[in-house]
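note to self: the first set is below, dont mix up w the second
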Amino acid sequence: MARITLDYGDAEATDQAALRLLAELRGLDEVRRAERERVPVAAGDRPGGDLRSPEIIAVGTLLATIAMTPEVLGGVLSYLGEWLHRPGNRRGSIHLRMPDGKEIALDNPSAEERRKLIDAFIREMRRR
């Protein structure tokens, strides 16, 4: 499962961006499953002393199940990069971390820089 982390400077903006992206990821054929990351929390650390919920949602972090082939991953990364260039999404960044720890950061690069970053990441994947 790949971890997608968004950063928009503050928790509210980050959470809103994550919800917009989550809705779109769920509609992509390449993404088998997408959800908000949930983090276990000890009973004493739960907000307001809530004893019912053993976990909280990690703001700005999504988990996505995608086929880990270079072609599919390249398509998803291109989609994420293009998503960053849409109005309302431009001031943020997206980091995608693979299950093996490999990570790519898309901090709103130009289309050409984005293509080079993604191509380099996919080349590295193919070497494994």
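second set (the one i keep forgetting abt)
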Amino acid sequence: MKIYNNNMEKIPAIYRTNGVEKIINKKSEIRDKVEISKEATKLAQSFNEFEKIKSQKIENIKEMLNTGTYNVKAEDVADVILKGILLNKKI
């Protein structure tokens, strides 16, 4: 195969124009796609329901504190304190 020096200047110009067009076309064709599984959707719904229940419980406790009807057993408080001490104790 013989390559003559006559048209060598034209070759890089051809590749430059075609290369740019191809890159631009490829970028416009690429699209991001996200699919959320059924399990993830159920998890999100469960989390939303949990947050509603949690906020309702907090509101109920606030209301009982304001009216003075919130009572806690001393045994329950002692159990939580002891569990906290045992969990924080280094073995």
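remember for set 2: Helices lie at 10-29, 38-67, 74-88.
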